[in-house]
Amino acid sequence: MLCFRGRAATRYAASMNSPSPSSLPALPRASAWPLLRALFKQPARPSAQPVQASYRLDRLDADHVRRYCDAFGFPPWPVPLTYLYLLAQRAQLATMLDRAMPFRIVGLIHVSNDLAMQCQVRTDAPLVLVTTLSMPEPGANGAVECVLETVASADGKTVFTCTSRYLIKRGQRAKHAPASPSVAPVGDVVGEWVVTADAGRRYAALSGDWNPIHLWPWSARLMGMHAPIIHGMETMARVCAAFEQSTDRRVKGLTCRFKRAVTLGASATLLACEVPGSFVVLSSDRVAVEGTLAYA
């Protein structure tokens, strides 16, 4: 197994038990069914104990990986980094559905993501995915978030990690707080694209994420949105593919924060910033995503 040097989440692996893959439930498939379950799942009483769940994945769907690469124009690497998010997302959603959660799953806002590949992922090798959900103390402004950390391993070795942070409850805005001056990001244009009206549905068909806020105007309004928005990790797939094409290097790690939603029909511009590895995505002349990339 080919392993990358550099940043690694060995702190997770050190604390993980090594369950036998055959004794674990299979990782649920991506489909609209989990979303329907989430719509009707009621919140449970709060608990201070972290929630953990483990699943097995016998093999990756090589044809699905190929279709994902073709959709975003990735170079011919075996498995692109952002594809691994699709696996982690399935494990994270399954964890929330199969355990008592002190919040409603529908309505969570994806605010940030850390994704790192420690070893080359093989499509024919089984994986064990262990997900831990924790809830940090509320922010000073009352904002409540949850954190889902997924560690995928093969033969006891960490293959990749994915940490997703979601906003459960918005915090209160400070009264009479001075507005921070807006500074236009400076950088070189790496890519530009238009988020088409059907982009949310096409990504849903590819990823299995059929959240109504990404599909149609009417379905987004049912969920309290003014307009449908594109999934943040669809944007990150475009970011990683664009940088891999322009640098001819493979992205093995990313840290991103979703600052503002990108609506369907909007245009987006990807900038490489002055700090090596850093980037921003602009939409309507405002920062939608900011983050950093690490290369193999």
Offer a concise description of the structure.
This protein is an alpha+beta fold and 296 residues long. The chain folds into two domains: 1-172, Thiol Ester Dehydrase, Chain A (Roll); 184-296, Roll (Thiol Ester Dehydrase, Chain A), CATH 3.10.129.10. The protein is 25% helix and 29% strand.
Describe this structure in words.
25% of the residues lie in helices and 29% in strands. The protein is α+β, with helices and mostly antiparallel strands and 296 residues long. The protein has two domains: 1-172, Hotdog Thioesterase (Thiol Ester Dehydrase, Chain A), CATH 3.10.129; 184-296, Roll (Thiol Ester Dehydrase, Chain A). Strands 1-3-4-5-2-7-10-9-8-6 form a ten-stranded antiparallel beta sheet. A hairpin with a 4-residue loop joins strand 8 and strand 9. The longest helix has 18 residues, at 81-98. The chain is globular and about 50 Å long.
